[in-house]
Amino acid sequence: MDLVGYLRVSSDGQLDGFGLETQHRAVLRWAKANGHRVVTWCRDEGVSGTTDAGDRPGLVCAGEAITNGLADGVLVARLDRLARNLTVQEAALALFWKLGARVFAADTGEVQPDDPDDPMRTAIRQVVGVFAQLDRAMVTKRLRDGRLAKASTGRKAVGAYPYGFCGAGRGRDRDAVPYEPEQVALLRIDELRRSGGSFREIASRLDAEGLAPRRARVWSPMAVRNIVTRSDPAT
User: Fold this and answer.
1) Which CATH superfamily is domain 2-132 in?
2) pLDDT higher for 89 or 153?
């Protein structure tokens, strides 16, 4: 059978370590072992398992592959790759079944459609979905509790580190520390500003001296202004 391989990782990183490459290998291994062929791949990177099926480009891609006759079914590494929210899981399954597709999970085999003569089949699938949703909620809660505990000690808990600093340490001990290359740029910005340089002039000088911004190719006056404003709110 020709299948669509569907992969998904969540918006906050794959907390369970089940990343795209791991899923890809599991899907290919199962397809080969069971005499199927993955003819196309659809993926959602950085998409929460609670996002509605219609708002996921990867699931839309899989549905289009079925509709266009490119494949006869969908294969995921685990059913929770479709969703970690029970209602979203059931909606995605219903969509594929309505299109006449079969759905497979590499860890459990075919996900059987509902059967009015076998209500236990639906109940068991939904119970598994409930526990997947609970597991995700518990992981999220532990992370939130950890951030709150870290913030209560005065350490940085969320968000990117400001220019001039980077993260050091692991887990709850991770905190901002000075990053030497960017600290040199900060000192130069301060020197040039004190000598009366405009934001545009400072940006040009930083580029000329090879002091790089964090993400952009060159400095912009606005980036310089943001750094100056952060260090001196009266600016």
Assistant:
1) Resolvase, N-terminal catalytic domain (3.40.50.1390)
2) 89
